[in-house]
Amino acid sequence: MYFDIPKTQAYLDETISLFSSALPSLTQPADVFVIPDFITLTSVASQITSSKSTLLLGAQDVHSQDFGAFTGEVSPKVLSQVGVKFVEIGHAERRRYFGETDEDVANKAAGISKNGMVPLICIGEVSRPKNIDQLSIDDVEMVVEECWRQIRPALEVMDKDAEVVLAYEPVWAIGKSEPASPEYVVKITKALRRRYNKEYVDSDKGRTDASMRILYGGSAGPGLFEKISEGVDGLFLGRFAHQPKAFIDTIKEVAGSK
């Protein structure tokens, strides 16, 4: 909730222009998306469509049901009609301020995927491991187990062919001057991938490794993706991306640039 309507329009105009210029130089395909507030979703969709940009559209939350007596909520069916591709759910702020639970996230994920969109599930451990500089296997497993409790309910209610994106950020590092180290992020995200493959790919659940992507949602800056790319597929930017040039520079790092 950092932008108003004029700022959103100006931001998209500049971002779309810079992205269009950068696109021919990218060496790998990448899904690039923006997630505005609900009021500006339709205007942002129009800006993207009219400019013929390949930017994708996201939403910051959703209700689990398509229709019903849920005053003030937003239907996943309506989001799909607007052209939304990704729907962010389970953000630490939603959990902390609005009491959102893992069950709520799972129900929303089901509604999102049923309407042909991709749930972007925010996950992260609350407590900072004591042995953070010398993580043992048990330390890593404790973190993964905490994150898995946030992930598994959603996977259980989604179709096996439905895509899911996990946005990982340790809750203990949010807003802190000392974020999680690249080494820490890689250890945890690689372990999350192994857990996913063990339970949903190398099993009778019938999922594929490609059906789940992991983004890192922590403090991001130039050069970060290169340090953590062994564990993640991309980045999920917050205020760092409020400057269009910084956003585009990050896209070039993730997708590669000629």
UniProtKB/TrEMBL annotation:
The keyword Acyltransferase does not apply. GO terms for molecular function: triose-phosphate isomerase activity. Keywords: Gluconeogenesis, Glycolysis, Isomerase. Transmembrane segments: none annotated. PANTHER family: TRIOSEPHOSPHATE ISOMERASE. Belongs to the triosephosphate isomerase family. GO terms for cellular component: cytosol. Pathway: Carbohydrate biosynthesis; gluconeogenesis; Carbohydrate degradation; glycolysis; D-glyceraldehyde 3-phosphate from glycerone phosphate: step 1/1. This is Triosephosphate isomerase. It catalyses: D-glyceraldehyde 3-phosphate = dihydroxyacetone phosphate. Homodimer. GO terms for biological process: gluconeogenesis; glyceraldehyde-3-phosphate biosynthetic process; glycerol catabolic process; glycolytic process. Its EC number is 5.3.1.1. It comes from Pseudozyma hubeiensis (strain SY62).
